[in-house]
Amino acid sequence: MNCRICGIELEDLTSKLCKKCDLTLFQILDIIEIYVKEKNPPEWLTNAVQELAWIYQAYPRTAGYFNTAVEILEIFTIFGASEIPLKEIKEVNYTSLPTNKVLSFLEEALLIERDNEVIRPGKLTKKLQEIRWEGYKMDSPEMEKKILEIHGILTVALTKSLIQTGFYIPRGALAIFDMLSHHILTSGKKIDPILSNYSIDLATIKLPIRQRLRLIRTMSGFVNGKTKIISDNTEKGEKPLKPVIIKYLEKEFERYRERERERERELL
Asked: How far, in Å, are 21, 126, 169, 222 from residue 7 at the CA level?
């Protein structure tokens, strides 16, 4: 039997996922669960998701989903609308994807709820509406962080929906989570502050070379002058992780191990 996400042969025939993909899927589902269930998502998570905001922004195959979702989230979260007539959504008209498919996809991502020709906030969007916007100017650092947070959680939600609907496996997005999962699993008891090139190479090996290089350039800050996930790419090729990512990895691994312990207790 092979892992249903990455396709490698499984040693544990009772599982549908390899250890790395299991941890990757756990991260994605855990982030969404925290945002939906907790009144105030913890700072270690809100800071970390900001580092994921860029993943779908220049990815043609998912641009229709991402741009439509951004438009809807902007109307609901920044302008405070309670519902939107479907005919007022503009971005869905600029994609070759069927409108119903785009909306079904966003519904699966918990971003919207549909009522005939009216769109209302989904569970995740309702949580994002609770963000306090008052007093923030659009060019303020606080507003920039909030928008990055929204784009980051949107990226996670879209990845979740792509996997669960079976539309296709978003290799570019999964490469980031796979890279982080591999780093967790090879760090030992304490998260290594330096991201290994091996973790990057292993996670991106199935990507087209152009996409792979762009991913690394974006992380290194060569696209817009701001690094993502890592804080530097030194002359020696070392890539130190940002402190917010180290904290995120520590927390997610702790939560993952707790889930594993719960599974073991259930088997007793």
From this structure: 10, 36, 11, 32
Residues 261, 263, 268: CA angle, nearest 5 degrees:
95
Looking at residue 245, its pLDDT comes to 98
Cα–Cα distance measured from residue 213 to residue 139, given in angstroms and rounded to the nearest whole number: 31
CB of 193 within 8 A of CB of 246?
Answer: yes
pLDDT at 268: 65
pLDDT at position 177 is 96
Q: Is the dihedral of CA 202, 239, 176, 41 positive or negative?
A: positive
User: pTM above 0.85?
Assistant: yes
Look up tokens 């996997």; give the residue: 163
Q: Which two tokens stand for residue 156?
A: 């996670």
3-state secondary structure of 210: helix
Q: Where are the beta strands (DSSP E) in the chain?
A: 84-85, 112-115, 118-121, 194-195, 239-240
pLDDT beneath 70: ranges in the chain: 58, 131-136, 268
Closest C-alpha among 1, 52, 48, 3 to residue 163: 3
